[in-house]
Structure formats: C-alpha cells, structure tokens
Amino acid sequence: MLSLNSVSKTYADGTEALRDIRLDIEQGEIVALVGGSGCGKTTLMRLISGLDTASSGTIAVDGETIAAPHPAVGVVFQEPRLLPWLSVADNIAFGLHHLPKTERTTASEAALERVGLAGYGARWPRELSGGQQQRVSIARALVPKPKVLLLDEPFSALDAFTRASLHEHLLTLWEASRPTVVIVTHDVDEAIRLADRVIVMQPKPGRIFETVSVAAPRPRDPLGLPYEKAKRRVLHALDRSLQNEIKAKKPAPQGSEAALWW
Amino acid sequence: MSEQSLARDDENAALQAPRSSIMRKVLHYALAFALPVILALGWEYAVHAGWSNGRLMPPPSRILDAFADLAQSGELWTHIVATLIRVLAGFALGAVSGAVIGALSGVSDIARRTLDPSLQALRSVPSIAWVPLFLLWLGIFEASKIALIAVGVFFPVYLGVSGAIESIDRKLVEVGRVFRLTPFQMVTRILLPAILPATIIALRAGLGLGFMFVVAAEFMGASEGLGYLLVDGQQMGRPDRILAAIIAFAALGKICDGILVILTRPLLRWQDLVRSKL
C-alpha cells in the first residue's frame, strides 16, 4: 500500500505547492491525478519518487518511508529520458546493474517482447519513434519489479492513436505484475480509461479537491454509460475546482497572499 | 503497421546507400584535390615556360626533389620523429592536466570560481610570450619545448571538458538518481558517456594547437624537427626545403587527427551525426 500522510511541500522561495495531502492507494490500484496547471501534480510525483523531500508529512510504501529514491518505486518521466549511448536493451536493463549479464539479457528481452518491441534490442534509442521510446522507458521502470509505478504525463507529447495503443500496452504490463500505478495526466479520457480512481486536484496551494471512483470493468468502452458517467463527474469536479479558485481570488485581489506571491 | 513499413524503408535506404556513397566519395575526393593539383600544375608550367624563375617560389617538381633528398639522406625521418615525439609528449601532458583540471572546475563550484578566472586570463597570453620564460626555467632542450606544447594543448581541453560537464542534461542525471546510482556509478555510467563527444572534439582541437606550438618551440633553438627545417631553409636560402617542411606539417597533422578520429569512433557510434548520413 502507498500511503501519503499529511504531505505538504513548500519550496525555498515560499511557494506552497502542496498542502496536507492524505491518500491511501491499495496495492495494484491505478490512480490518476488530474487538475489545472500549478496544482502540484508533478511536485507530488517527485515526492513519491523520492527525488524531492516533503516539507512535512510522510510517504510510505508498505510501511517503508520514502525519503530518497527507493527500489520499490519506478518512475516514467514525461520525456522518455533514455540514455542515448546505450542500446535499447541496455537502457531497459539499466536498473539491473547488480545482476549477472545473462539474467539482464533475458529480463530485457522479455520486457521488450511485452511492450511489442521484440527484435529492437540492438537499436539505438534515436532510431525509435517517440511512442516506442516511451514504451522502452516504461519497460525500464518496470523491469526491476517496483511495487509502485509513477507516470508523470507520460503520453502528453504523443498523438491520439499512439496514445491509445500505449494505454493498452500499459494495462497489459500492469496485468503482468499488478503494481500500484499513479499517473498524472491532463487528459480526462486517459484518466478514466486507465484508473480505478481519479483524483481531482485544486491549485494554489495544491490540494485534493475530489475523488471519483470509476466502476466500469476493463476493457473500458468509451461509448458505454459507466464511462460517460465517470467522465461527466470528473469534468464537473474539474470545473468546480477551478471556479472555486476564481471565486477565492475575486474578493481580495490585493490581499496578503497576492502580495506574498510577488 | 506503419512501424514495420518505416523499418523496411530504413533497410531499403541502407541497401541502396553503398553504391551511391562510393560514387559520392570519389567525387568528394576529386573536388578536394582539384584546387591544389590545378594550382601546382599551373605553377610548374609557368616556371617551365620561363614566365618566372621560381627561385623564391619553387615549382612542385623542385619541392619533390627536396623531399626526395631529405628522405634519402634520412634527415626527413629524423625531423618528423623529433617533432612527433615532442607533440605527443606535450599533448599527453596538456590533455591529461586539461582534462583533470577541467573536470574539477566542471564538478565543483568552488574550484571553478577559484581556477577559471586565472586560467581564462592566462589563456589570452600569446604562445610566443612563454618562450623566454620557459627557456630560463627549463633550459633550451626538450623540457621547455614540451612544456610550451603542453600549454597550447591544455586550454582547449580544459575549456571543452569543463563546459561539457556544466552542460550535462540534468534530466539524465535524475534518471541515475531514480536508479540509486552511487556517486562513482553516476560518474562512470552517466557523466563520462555524456561528456565524451565534447571531450573528443576538445582533444582534437588540442592536438591541432599542439602542432602550432611545436613550431614556436622548435624556433627557439632546436637542432632537429620540422620547425628546425623551416629555420634552416630560411637561413640557407632554400625555399624548396621550407615548403617541403610545411607540406610535411600538413600531412603529419592530418594523419594524427585522422588517427584520433578513428580511435575514438567506436565510442561515438551512438551519436546521431549529420555527417554519417551524408
């Protein structure tokens, strides 16, 4: 279980990025974080990945506190971030350095097959398309078998068709080892297609505004009623989360918070 | 599947490449040699026709004769070996110290703030200005010459390595952090491969400067070396020998650079070079 216990983050320049995030995610659950810009989604991902540390509160995976990058947490960034000097297979095996070479090879070959890139192992990352590179990046994160997989807007730079096929790849990979998945996205359809729970966040400071459970069974039919219902609820919540912000701003345009901001 | 058709296109391109690329290579070589060959033949003809006596600017045939003379007496090889040893020794010294100090000031902020301003100031000192000082300090034999060449090689390598470290992609370093690399692994698995291309370019620039500085070094009183051959040719009134030495310099420099490129090519196979596509 991934548990966030009153997590807050204030940056050195005084910006309050996250306030009091409380969230428990079951093992094997897929959770999507959506919200307007500046609501702290990426900050939250960096905290869970251990790349940044929370100002207060704790993050734990199965009771183990995350304060630095941890083997139980795998990360897929917005860009593939493959190492250009390593072959595709070596990139996938990057996190398996401690294993003997034969084990690394078998692991990366199996992973390549699972992401539909069998036979691409000897190529350079630059020879792959954007979607293929991102698949390699997902494989790299999953090969060390993390309990939690974090994806920070992983498909936002890809076209709609590639994105749809990557959703399927991701779900297939998830089926294989059932890690907990937290995915940040600004695409409501992506959130509902993938997630068991969609968490709508609210900006300044970043907070959880509302949680929408998606009951539809997988594979999800985007034209079905449960899908449509969930989508409406998420869109509605997003709308209100932003309206609240506008209302909150109006009465005190020159309030103390606004002054601090500059 | 669009991916498969893309892959097939790649293969087709790869199959067609050799034939056209050989033709293109021949054409490139022909273009590269056209200008010097035409100029040389033209000058040869002008001297033969009596338009010029070719005393100060000897025709190619006389330069070739000078070359042959020098080669037969064995002088040429003595000079080339002497120059080559100096350049290589100075290059090794300058490249290693440039890489180490460049790495230091690339990695550590304090080191950069302490070292970089002084080094940048020293960099603008003309090479010849060091000559009297090195002669006083190190004598007129090999040490002073090698030191001068090392100074020439040091700066481009220093600049290249420190700049490469500063401009490493932080996003790739973050990948290393996510996979919990130790500081040592971070250096060997991320930092070194990332700075390799810029470092090799810096080494090539350093080698080029090494050849420039070796002439300055050999002007300051050498009894052998291609630079000595230049001075000797001037004093004996032998422009053919001067030109032979200049051509030897050009060939030697090009060959050394080529060897460096070939030696380092396997390390840079991963780069997406425009050159490899031409």
Describe this structure in words.
- The complex is a heterodimer of chains A (262) and B (278).
- With 262 residues, chain A is α/β, with parallel strands linked by helices.
- In chain A, strands 6-7-8-3-9-10 form a six-stranded mixed beta sheet, with helices on both faces. A four-stranded antiparallel beta sheet of chain A has the order 2-1-4-5, covered by helices on one side.
- The longest helix of chain A is centred in the C-terminal third of the chain and has 25 residues, at 225-249.
- Chain A has helices at 41-49, 88-92, 101-114, 130-142, 160-177, 188-194, 225-249, 256-261, and strands spanning 2-10, 16-25, 30-35, 56-61, 64-65, 73-76, 148-152, 180-184, 197-202, 207-213.
- Chain A is globular, with a radius of gyration of 19 Å.
- Chain A is built from eight helices and ten strands.
- In chain A, α4 runs parallel beside α5 (160-177).
- Chain A has a single domain (2-72, 146-261), classed as P-loop containing nucleotide triphosphate hydrolases (Rossmann fold), CATH 3.40.50.300.
- In chain A, 37% of the residues lie in helices and 23% in strands.
- Chain B is an all-alpha fold.
- Chain B folds into two domains: 1-52; 60-277, Orthogonal Bundle (MetI-like fold), CATH 1.10.3720.
- Helices cover 83% and strands 0% of the residues of chain B.
- Chain B has helices spanning 2-48, 60-72, 75-107, 109-123, 127-138, 142-166, 170-178, 183-219, 226-235, 239-264, 274-277.
- Chain B is globular, with a radius of gyration of 24 Å.
- Chain B starts with a helix and ends with a helix.
- The model of chain B is unreliable at 1-9 (pLDDT under 50).
- The interface between A and B is medium-sized, with 24 and 20 residues.
